[in-house]
Write a structure and sequence with these properties.
The structure is a homodimer of 241-residue chains.
Chain A: E1 3-8, H1 21-28, E2 36-40, H2 41-48, E3 51-53, H3 63-69, E4 70-77, E5 80-85, E6 90-92, E7 105-107, H4 113-128, E8 133-141, E9 148-156, E10 162-163, E11 179-180, H5 182-194, E12 202-206, H6 227-230
Parallel strand pairs in A: 2-8
Antiparallel strand pairs in A: 1-12, 2-12, 3-7, 4-5, 5-6, 8-9, 10-11
């Protein structure tokens, strides 16, 4: 049975606005064909300058930012806001986050996390000629279950949702469950080697099924697959909004 | 940097009621100290006889079973029912499933999936003297995001939710996100090596942080940790029920 290997990438220096993440990753890890590189939203936002200054002495100073980054508030309880972002993500505090950023700053979600992932993927291919999948991951809560898990907020070179329609099970019956959110499973797996406090912002997942990869170098941007295009549910098809 | 290895376990024979899953797993895989063994709900339900006969010629014959297995219906759309089970899980069709079971049968969720996991864990320790974590996994949809991912519905020997309260980030700031649902991340990771149609019902995850393991051999059952005790949100603390 073929297996998977996952490892966190050590030695990524502190990321600042304008930094070339693809270059930093190629420096720190020996990437192979069809590795998947998982990069936390935090360093992507830092590199892209998706940061705002907040009052370092006011623990609630990022709250107006949360309101501004929300297109719709779904629930409030105490300080907690669950809202929809302009990308269509539903998450706590519109993804605005003070952890692992410099005191006095808050990190926002990247403008277009699929584009962020594509830029890293293209940067890696340009630099070392290696085709990898890229996921930008963030940490979201869930309904009905305690605790958070990492999910994909952007991807490139991957099919975010693996479509198994028409596939049959071991008994020859057509599968009931047909769409597997593989990029979320990969992001969750990567969190296990990154941790929340160790400050490892990049992980590599090696050995994934070839079926999850897609060639998004095509000239036609309409064939590009990403989290925003494929995985975010529209309000109309969502039963809980 | 330490990494993770994941592999699917080949060679598990067709599971029937009364089968000794722990024995089958020890036969098929060489387990090591603090491996995590992820077992799909389907084979656990088969071994425990959590199956009901349905009319093989009526594709909707399991629907009355879904109603019976639900303590509360949250949403209906067409054939789809999102309901709460007596365990407190919220999922499609109360976890009743026709895939990868013999024609004419439907699989129910195990009565107490934490107990199922503990039985496998104890069986493995009794047989080969090796301490492993065990997760019983199932495939659930999510709100707001397309596609399904595998989650943990039962666990043993593991802290389902890793509590990072008081932990500081790389900048010395206390973490905002404090509870990581590691068993769900492990279940999601395991799905990547099991697949939906290949019929591999067991995966091994090797190399996890020691912090996720717990000794639940203690005589006092109140110290046992599991998905039902630690991870299922009570309706009162849930904002979406």
């Amino acid at each position: 049975m073929s297996g998977l290997e996952l490892f966190g990438v050590d030695g990524i220096p502190e990321v600042r606005r304008g930094d070339d993440l693809a270059g930093m990753i190629c420096q720190a890890a020996e990437l192979r064909h069809h590795d998947v590189v998982v990069v936390t939203q935090k360093v992507v936002s830092k590199a892209e300058g998706a940061m705002v200054e907040v009052d370092p002495d006011d623990p609630l100073s990022h709250k107006p930012v949360v309101e501004r980054e929300s297109v719709r508030i779904l629930r409030r309880r105490g300080e907690l806001v669950i809202s929809e972002t302009r990308h269509g993500f539903v998450c706590a505090n519109a993804g605005v986050d003070l952890s692992n950023v410099e005191h006095g700053w808050a990190a926002l979600l990247p403008d277009d996390p699929d584009r962020s992932a594509r830029r890293i993927r293209d940067g890696i291919r340009g630099r070392i000629g290696t085709d990898v999948g890229v996921i930008v991951s963030d940490t979201f809560g869930r309904t009905w279950r305690r605790g958070v898990t990492d999910v994909a907020i952007g991807s490139a070179g991957l099919l975010p949702v693996l479509d198994l329609r028409g596939t049959r099970d071991a008994y020859g019956r057509e599968l009931q469950v047909t769409e597997v959110a593989v990029v979320d499973e990969i992001a969750a797996a990567a969190e296990l080697v990154m941790g929340k406090s160790s400050g490892i912002p990049v992980a590599v997942v090696r050995g994934l099924d070839e079926a999850v990869f897609t060639d998004d170098t095509a000239a036609d941007p309409s064939v590009r697959r990403g989290v925003l295009t494929d995985l975010v549910r529209s309000p109309a098809e969502d039963l809980f909004r």
